[in-house]
Design a protein that fits this description.
One of its GO terms (biological process) is base-excision repair. By secondary structure, the protein is mainly alpha-helical. The chain is 54% helix and 0% strand. The radius of gyration is 16 Å and the shape is globular.
Length: 191
């Protein structure tokens, strides 16, 4: 039996996400945009709901191509609001499109902006109780994203993004994935 972060053991989808994705460095503007979008859609819902709908989200949002989503118009919004395969929340749909437009305007790109907030010195959490919901870094990231016109990116959502894409390593100290994620973060290529 391997040790995992406690949150990851309740469903096979969580186990696969934890073991293969969560915390591993994500680079590339479209990939980072996908994660921002999914974290925003997750707000108020279970992450499991989003994981199970992720392929539907990818199809609905043009594989999270920033230029393609930035060009979405009212007919696309209507299409998305009628798509039962995704979470149909008008504010979140509007935010996803606005965020693509904001990302398209960033000098240097979204990946570069987000990775400026990587925390290389955060201590390894001993257990779930040691994992914060937000940090000074996530507050600063949320503020920076909002400054550029992003929506649905509060400090808690920003911290979930930081965890998901490797800006922090919140695998608990005895989790079998922690060392692997640490090594990948040290080897991570710039955006």
């Amino acid at each position: 039996m391997v040790n995992r972060c406690a949150w990851a053991t309740s469903a096979p989808d969580y186990i696969a996400y934890h073991d293969d994705e969560w915390g591993r460095p994500v680079h590339g503007d479209d990939h980072v945009y996908e994660r921002i979008t999914l974290e925003a859609f997750q707000s108020g819902l279970s992450w499991l709901t989003i994981l199970r709908k992720r392929e539907n989200f990818r199809r609905a949002f043009a594989e999270f191509s920033i230029p393609k989503v930035a060009a979405f118009d009212e007919s696309d919004v209507e299409r998305l609001m009628n798509d039962t395969g995704i979470v149909r929340n008008r504010a979140k749909v509007d935010a996803a499109i606005a965020n693509a437009r904001a990302a398209a305007e960033l000098p240097g790109g979204l990946c570069e902006l987000v990775w400026k907030f990587a925390d290389w010195s955060a201590p390894a959490p001993a257990g779930l109780g040691d994992v914060p919901a937000q940090t000074a870094g996530s507050k600063a990231l949320a503020k920076e994203l909002k400054k550029h016109g992003f929506r649905f990116v509060g400090p808690t959502t920003a911290y979930a993004l930081m965890q998901a894409i490797g800006l922090v390593n919140d695998h608990v100290i005895d989790c079998w994935v922690r060392e692997e994620v640490s090594a990948l973060r040290n080897e991570a290529a710039p955006c």
